[in-house]
Write a structure and sequence with these properties.
mainly alpha; two-stranded parallel sheet; 4 strands; 6% strand; globular
């Protein structure tokens, strides 16, 4: 699904997510004028999307990795690090952490008061996990810091965050930092205009509603028409 974020609409729904299919559509849209003044593309961390955009538009279009996909990747690595740290604890202490995953992975502002108190007790008892939690919040603060106004400044802050994260010596965080380093230039482009794929989740919800009302739509051409009619 391709989204026009400027006009809040679905541009197209492609039957395949492979690079060749996307390139063919992008080339036609560019040559036909639909994307003649395109300035920026937001995407997730998939090589096919990034390569297709770069090969069709060259360097004149800024490619930005969606910050929410970055945080999703981080959450997965954070959970791996949490399990690694938990395995290093005595059995009794590890048992005390059972059922607390949600507390560690939820934004503090979304916790109720008693849940925040419980998390604080856990952070006091388990300092290594508390350090992981602090790294999570530090990464969020970087993305939300409006004083960062360029890709260069954003990349510098993210690299410093990585140095602090690697010092914890946890496999999951080191894996995430390698991912961050690989995609750094495109992730740091977020700080130029703060673009993201946040709207896409709303469109995905709309598509699920279309499928629900149609009791599932196995015919792709019919599904595409329904989506473009409702959301295009």
């Amino acid at each position: 699904m391709l989204i026009d974020h400027s006009n809040n609409r679905v541009l197209e729904v492609l039957e395949s997510r492979d690079k060749a299919t996307l390139m063919a559509w992008l080339q036609a849209a560019r040559d036909g004028g639909l994307l003649g003044v395109l300035e920026e593309v937001t995407t997730d961390m998939w090589d096919g999307y990034v390569e297709a955009v770069r090969e069709v538009f060259g360097d004149r279009v800024r490619i930005t990795i969606d910050r929410f996909h970055v945080m999703k990747n981080f959450q997965e690595c954070l959970n791996q690090s949490r399990r690694q740290a938990q395995k290093q604890l005595p059995r009794e202490a590890a048992q005390a952490l059972k059922g607390t995953r949600w507390l560690w992975l939820t934004n503090p502002e979304n916790l109720e008061q008693e849940q925040r108190r419980e998390l604080q007790r856990l952070q006091t008892r388990f300092p290594q996990l508390a350090a992981l939690s602090a790294q999570r919040e530090a990464l969020r603060r970087i993305f939300e810091d409006r004083t960062i106004g360029s890709a260069q400044d954003g990349a510098a802050r993210l690299r410093q965050w990585c140095r602090d994260a690697v010092a914890l010596g946890l496999t999951g965080l080191m894996a995430f930092c390698r991912t961050l380093d690989r995609w750094m230039d495109k992730i740091a482009n977020y700080f130029v205009s703060r673009s993201s794929n946040g709207q896409t989740e709303g469109f995905n919800h709309g598509i699920r509603a279309i499928l629900w009302r149609g009791f599932g739509i196995p015919n792709f051409a019919h599904l595409r028409s329904r989506i473009l009619h409702a959301l295009g």
